[in-house]
Amino acid sequence: MNPARRIASTLCAGTLAVLFAPPAQAGEWVIQGQVVGVADGDTVTVLDKNKQQHRVRVAGIDAPEKGQPFGNASKDNLARMIFKRRVEVRCYKEDRYGEVCRVYNDKLRDVGLAQVSAGFAWWYREYSHEQTTQERGAYSAEEANAKAAKRGLWKDPNPVPPWEWRRGKRAPSG
After folding, report:
1. Domain assignments of the chain as residue spans, ordered by start
2. How far apart are CA 74 and CA 87, in angstroms?
3. Which residue of 77, 101, 151, 172 sits 20 to 30 Å from the alpha carbon of 36, by its own alpha carbon?
4. Smallest Cα–Cα separation from 103: which of 62, 16, 42, 49?
5. CATH topology classification for 26-165
6. Which residues lie closer than 8 Å to 39 by C-beta, 6 or more apart?
7. Which of 62, 85, 94 is closest to 159 using CA atoms?
8. Could you list the pLDDT tens digit for every one of the 174 residues in the chain?
């Protein structure tokens, strides 16, 4: 392929990626970089082009905690999708754990939705008001599909959501 055609092809592919990427929401900031760490099934570290690390919580999901059934499997699934790969994260708030962001892999696939679909995270309904109507529908449907197919954590007849598991861990014994 001659250089002019290669440039045109690259520009066309880049334009298509931008056209088909979900639109940025008002107040969002975008970070592009490489995932250099996966803490658990919903938390990663992204290194941006300025070599700044960002602790990112994947928006819309809550994954099993370390020490909880399926915690390691959830972390491993997320790592398979994005560890040492380029991502685009669209952040919209910060909390005490880091930046809360929608995370897209190099194919512009919503990583949070993929975790829910694989059965390695719950759709975090408590924060569904932070999602678009389209995202709520997709997350709800994928969670229902994963549950019906008994994928991942849904193999357990009574999986304990992480927010309940954390509450139980904090409860005083006795």
Report:
1. 26-165
2. 18
3. 151
4. 42
5. OB fold (Dihydrolipoamide Acetyltransferase, E2P) (2.40.50)
6. 45, 55, 75
7. 62
8. 554 444 444 333 333 333 334 455 568 999 999 999 999 999 999 999 999 999 999 999 999 999 999 999 999 999 999 999 999 999 999 999 899 999 999 888 999 999 999 999 999 999 999 999 999 999 999 999 999 999 999 999 999 999 999 888 755 544
* Token pair 């952040």: residue: 91
Question: 160: which 2 tokens?
Answer: 């304990």
Whole-number Cα distances in Å, 20 to 53, 109, 121, 146, 160? 27, 11, 26, 26, 36
